[in-house]
């Protein structure tokens, strides 16, 4: 993510600047750990900045959002969700601009197509209307319909004195005069329109339009020239001021989506887990926990959880699932391959989903996915849409080597191993890359998709101009 400009140059509100600085410090100190919490904090901070800014132009808003996202990403260079949320907000901004532009263009075209009261010819009436008016004039000569009929100049023989019936409009009686034909009525109406057009106000010349005797322009022409000059002055469209409120509302809807991601993913859990199955998961993930808890309400199954050394996140996951009433089996990491023939399905929580359908998951996920492929065991990945990233650098060897390291104190006790700590190179990787060939389906909060469909989700949630921030 590259962007030019400092925060002080684009953020003039002190409260917004302090909010961005505070989030930067929390990200540097790793005070916010979960991806959902980081996504919510990023969206709230950008919303605070947009609320306080006094610009409405698209280019300026895009520049401000990019600079804020750039500084937040630099504070935590190895967290993909910061860039994903920034791209998503930029996409929402562009969609709101497109909607407002369409609305403004539609209103302008509707106003241009509106007929004027003096320069538009009347539409001829339908022939059935002409016949109905003729019948009414024959039965009620003094009615307003007769005067309207008289304007068509269609002479009608008066009917005998009798009461009017509604059936006369459909089947005129033999005692009534034969109504005029549609062709005669149409020609009479056309001649009437032409006669009225000759005396229309638009054809009458005004004294103001004639030039004066001294050769100077008339006042009317001078006013017309002044109005044409005024039209050349650019005017800010009124709907442009609605952009910021609509964008703030869209960000709030995005925050609501973050809060309901786990619930949306877990709503179809019963369709993927069946009674009597053995489900293997890895590490601690609130998304996987919610998914298994929702399935346990309708199915009876066993959850197998490896320890996930050296962080031992599997212990926390096993305790959480046991508290939810599930049957849990906590096993060492070395027993995964031996247990794989008994496993019905592998469910992994993804930290990041790449454009090719691969995922970043807890360390050990690569070995589990390879063992599952060897035994033809389905592998299911769970991830919210906000975890889908178009950035390929997250799987580069340099990024995985430098930004994928946990605390080495989990492996070595420096107090009792001075020689080992001084002479050995200690690595503690946190995440594994699982290729799309080892994944069967990815379940998101907008549905379940094969890994090959991820590129489509990127097009639906990010704009092509924002893929490289």
From TrEMBL:
InterPro entries: eIF2B_beta_subunit, IF-2B-related, IF_2B-like_C, NagB/RpiA_transferase-like. It comes from the Eukaryota. It is found in: Cytoplasm, Cytosol. Its main location: cytoplasm. GO terms for molecular function: guanyl-nucleotide exchange factor activity; translation initiation factor activity. Residues 194-221 have a biased composition (Polar residues). GO terms for cellular component: cytosol; eukaryotic translation initiation factor 2B complex. Residues 105-127, 194-231 are annotated as: Disordered. SUPFAM superfamilies: NagB/RpiA/CoA transferase-like. The keyword Metal-binding does not apply. Keywords: Cytoplasm, Initiation factor, Protein biosynthesis. Belongs to the eIF-2B alpha/beta/delta subunits family. Component of the translation initiation factor 2B (eIF2B) complex which is a heterodecamer of two sets of five different subunits: alpha, beta, gamma, delta and epsilon. Subunits alpha, beta and delta comprise a regulatory subcomplex and subunits epsilon and gamma comprise a catalytic subcomplex. Within the complex, the hexameric regulatory complex resides at the center, with the two heterodimeric catalytic subcomplexes bound on opposite sides. This is Translation initiation factor eIF2B subunit beta. It comes from Malassezia globosa (strain ATCC MYA-4612 / CBS 7966).
